[in-house]
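Cross-posting from the chemistry board since nobody answered there.

I work mostly on the small-molecule side, so proteins are not my area. We synthesized adenosine-5'-triphosphate and want a rough idea of how it might sit in this target. Sequence and SMILES are below. Is it possible to get a predicted 3D structure of the two together?
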Amino acid sequence: MAISICLINQKGGCGKSSTCFHLAGAFAAAGHSVLLVDADPQGSLSQGFLGSSFVEALPASQTLAALFVESCRFLNHRQLVRETSIAGISIIPANQHLAEFNVPCPERTRMMQFVLRDLLQQQHEYDVVLVDCPPNLYQCTWNALLATQQVLIPVNPEDFGAQGLRAVHQAIDHARQLNPVLRRLGHLVTRYDRRLLIHRSYEEQLRILYPHLVLQTAIYELNAYKVALACRMPVENYRAKTPAAAAMRELVEEIFLRLAAKEKRRIAG
Ligand SMILES: Nc1ncnc2c1ncn2[C@@H]1O[C@H](COP(=O)(O)OP(=O)(O)OP(=O)(O)O)[C@@H](O)[C@H]1O
Ligand SMILES: [Mg+2]
């Protein structure tokens, strides 16, 4: 069965899209077919793979926004999936057309909150689905929470209060009422700089605040992630022998280990 993971956090720039982008490369290199869903009207993930002018020119009917557009409701949404230049990675792109549908009170929109779930239920051929969310908990993130099985929360080792983690966890609890299979995969420390005392102490604090819910793998602030992105390649495809690529492979391994441990606990009751 496919693994589906959404990456959420209200904080902008914490590395959601970058993690999705490079993690996709590591999953694909390990032999898994990956579907990326760009659920952010900023379209950063789509632009990373397809280029900004191409993505910005896409009509709503060829992006994730089609799920919300009345006149596109009866289109074959499987056509929204595009192959990328990287073998094993496909993407449903998004751009500015999604912005008007990313409303702040998604639950009031009744069936609209389930459009992504309905779409993903038709995607059987992928091993891994990763959904990149915008820096808020509006309709797009809400759809992702109702459509996936796991939540990964990229967190910068900085003031957690300012990052609104409490609201993130409340949203997950709330979503579980409508999507009971949803689980927390954990917090992923991103853009980490071990030389900074403040980063080390916040990381420690995060592990105390959320025992068992912080991944061992941390993603360091490394130039290779930026350079590979600029070359439109996950770092695994750009330079597999860099520490940046190794960290993404380590993250894939840890995700599988965590999921296996969860499954074992579920079976044991
Ligand atoms: N580990 C990292 N090392 C170096 N640069 C990084 C790293 N993670 C992210 N960045 C850079 O930081 C910027 C913001 O990252 P990214 O777009 O992934 O954040 P985001 O959480 O998706 O932002 P938004 O909330 O706006 O969607 C980008 O320029 C990205 O290349
Ligand atoms: Mg982003």
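Reply from a structural biologist on the board:
Welcome over. Reading the output above for you: The chain has a mean pLDDT of 94. The CA atoms of residues 23 and 208 lie 26 Å apart. Happy to explain the token format if needed.
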